[in-house]
């Protein structure tokens, strides 16, 4: 049974790069592994320092940009809240006005109904009085 090739060739390339790095440092150190290790440590420290020197400046810049965007977001939400409050106040005033209009219309309807009932009661009372007068002989 033949061995199947791996699905990904990434491990092969990583291994070749590592072997190439080891070979470079051994060659530049003249084949002495201790000197190659010290040279590698020196290069790694120098690369780390270069990366670290870039990060704090970028951190401040990102922080400033974050503050600017934060202020924009705050302003956006403040404006949205003010707009919503204005619309709510307008709707509240409109609801009060409608309530007052309905109350006036209802009161007017009640007054008209009361007048009609009173008029009808007066007519009935007049008719009843006239009916008694007929039976009692009064005119």
Outline the low-pLDDT stretches. Answer: none
SSE ordering: HH
Strand content: under 5%
Helix content: over 70%
Total helix count?
Answer: 2
Q: Any idea what the radius of gyration is?
A: 49 Å
Assign an overall shape.
Answer: rod-shaped
Number of strands: 0
Average pLDDT figure: 83
Structural class: mainly alpha
Largest sheet: none
Distance between the termini: 136 Å
Describe the structure.
By secondary structure, the chain is an all-alpha fold. The chain is 88% helix and 0% strand.
Please describe the topology of this protein:
Elements: H1 10-28, H2 33-136
In a few lines, what is going on in this structure?
By secondary structure, the chain is mainly alpha-helical. It has two helices and no strands.
List descriptors:
single chain, about 140 residues, mainly alpha, rod-shaped
